[in-house]
Amino acid sequence: MGLGIILLDDVYPGFPGDVRNASAFPFPVQYDVATGVDIHNLVDLPDKSPCLEPVIQSARRLERMGCRAIAAECGYFAYFQREVAAAVRVPAFMSSLLQVPLAQQLIGPDRVVGILLAQKRYISERHLTAVGIAPGSNFVVGGAMDDGRCEEFDHLWTRGLRSDPPGACYEKAERELVAVGTAFFGQHPNMGAMVLECTGFPPFARALQREIDIPIFSWGTLLDYAYSVAVHRDYYGHV
What we know:
With 239 residues, the protein is an alpha/beta fold. It is built from 9 helices and 8 strands.
């Protein structure tokens, strides 16, 4: 078994590259739903304590299935990084935000890491410190969906704006994400790398990188790394 991925208890499609769409992964994945933990409960509500036990139980089910590492579907699962890591005996990669401290070390102290969130207002200090991000260090945050700028993502995820059935246009979603990502980069001339928080952003990461030409970390890079750690590759060649 490869990576175990905790899914939200929500129903919507994901483009290839989205964590809930297994078709693009070059390694085996196993999904499990954290019962009762939907976008509203995990992201919107201030009191996230009711989510903890279902998340831990999901992680433990994946471990029992034989998964070599545990990941999750939403960057805001960072809130429970420490608790899940303590509850299982395999590595836990609960958020793409785990890559922020690494990115900070790679670019040096005079440049900043841009953290592009789905919605900036829902991030808290606990989300950051749980994955090792020091408050006040060299990072800046932006919200891709703030002010209705990514309408196609609202059609998938946002209460009251979600279409029935949930769906989105790939080309329009790409244009919207690239536009907000490029604008975010333009607001911070000393940005040396960008970390995409949301699991719905990796399908468009390469298109964004073509525009801003800096290192981009995403759920895609995190899961590739997680699998390489849990199942190290063999080497073949000639001497």
